[in-house]
Amino acid sequence: MPQKSFAPGATGRITIDLGTIASNWKSLAERVAPAECAAVVKADAYGLGADRVVPTLSAAGCTTFFVATLGEAQQVAALTKGARIFVLDGLVPGSGAALAKLGGIPVLSSLEEIADWRIQAKQLGHALPAALQVDSGLHRLGLSASDVAHLAQNPDTLEGCDIALIMSHLASADTPEARENAAQLDVFKTLLAQLPAAPASLAASDGLMLGAAYHFDLVRPGYALYGGQAYQGEKTPVAPVVQVTAQMVQVRNVPAGGSIGYSASFRAENAMRVAIVAVGYADGVPRTASAATGQTGGVVAINGHTANVVGRVSMDLIAVDVTHVPTALVQRGAAVELIGPTVPLDEVGAAAGTIGYEILTRLSPRFERVYLEPGEH
Ligand SMILES: *Cc1c(COP(=O)(O)O)cnc(C)c1O
Hints:
Helices cover 27% and strands 23% of the residues. It is α/β, with parallel strands linked by helices and 377 residues long.
């Protein structure tokens, strides 16, 4: 990717390859056919910009979107025509009237939410679309087995709800050998059998890799669309989407015994050459990517040469060890890869003790966002 200079005032650049988001969606859709492939675009499309990502996915053929909140549903509705929009946080108190007006589909996860939606439908005088979420073992959101039994015995409870989907969510789908997967699959089937017939969905990015038994009628990937490789089995058939770069603002020598950064947590054993990069935790570089003496923290790259973070990550700056990097590449203004071909997203997460999901969704507005249109590379 050509390295143009940064927009004045930007802390760095996030390059988002929309064509690859489209081809990732198509690749997953092919893999799960005849099941439908939806797209999860919550949290501003995992930090990448729903205003650009959603139209790209629509153009690729995606007609079902999942968001977390009412505000996100309103944004997706404005960006699409006739798309189905599921709201994963469900019927948050106070959101019902606006959600009904929008035609959004709440993922109802408790008998209280079902009762609220039923009242909303009654007030409007017509049925409203809804999804039901059952808890198959994650113990996050979802109707319990006894809630499902109650619904089975009292079908009137669902009056006014047009059930568009019955879904559940897996706890350990990234680990193919985890016992929870098959156990949750069994529980899900048992609960489905007690509910009115409706399309079903269990799998997100990793669940869809567990095989056709997990696909049901619809899969709901998010992270994989954005190039994430969280699945610990075979490689997910998607390509990287995001590159993040920032720039060096100073290069300096640190003498043997000198400390680097706050609290002097890192001490140079030998003389070192260090580049100071204008990016920090306010930009979304986790402070847990810091490296005290003898530890490894975050890793960046300069023209394909990796360099370790040394010392504490500050709010706006990090220090990286460039002692071994060819001197011609190490100069004020040089581009530093934070995420990209040399430093994959998932490794950035792991090096900071977190996951790529958190890295993506915390990249700050101080970065300029540059979009590559489909066909443009
Ligand atoms: C976020 C989320 C997804 C998407 O998960 P990925 O791992 O990003 O594919 C799917 N379903 C539910 C219920 C979610 O909360």
